[in-house]
Amino acid sequence: MVKVISSLQNPLIKNVLLLSDKPRARKEQNRIVIEGLREIRLAIMSGFNITDLLYCPGLVSAADLKSLAAEEKHTEMIEVSPDVFNRMAYRRDSGGLIALAEPRRQVFSDLLLGKQPLLLVLETVEKPGNLGALLRTADAANLDAVIICDPQTDIYNPNAIRSSIGCIFSMPIVTAASGDAIAWMRGAGIKILGTALTASHFYHETDFCQPAAIVMGSEANGLSSTWLEEADDLIKIPMRGKIDSMNVSASAAIVVFEAMRQRGFL
To answer: Are strands 118-123 and 3-5 parallel, antiparallel or unpaired?
Structure first.
């Protein structure tokens, strides 16, 4: 018998809202909220454990629901009314599906690097939307991994998941202290290329055809002194306008795809 929930006062619904809103609750319960068919499918394909799947029959196709039920035979399927779903939904076009899942915390030893790895390192990323956009760039370039150092936001914030279009689940991601990340890269023979307005070299003059990590700082403060001092080289993007900075996700895309161009997009 299918469980049906039509009340906003239901404990499960209240908990979904709590998990969506509070990073502390996500940490304490070891649960995250995933919204949308594409995002849920990517999480499943990437090995995330889906514990609950809430759906609204009027918003999700029977074929998609049947497919998910077949893939996740041990996941509890819970029907909710349109009013309840719309209260839970983070966005309007989520397709009538919301899942609860266990997050995955990878460490450096989990990473499977290629012969000439290319990494994106993000220091003190603050905005979930920027994080999602950066992860989409990393996915588009098929980078070996993204290293998030000293994060100022929960990487499983619903807005980060939404703006990443689910590649937060498929991209290898490690969160770590800056010192630990630097030590690991040194041990792995990965050249650290920090981005900074004070750099003397332009990004297109830099050799990316070697194991390398492109390090991006926060939009507000740029890279910390730790990364500025530890970087093997500092690079910058030529600025010809009236301001001296761009959105961090746009800057990362420019540098990452120059690296890919030099590598023949392989």
So the answer is: unpaired
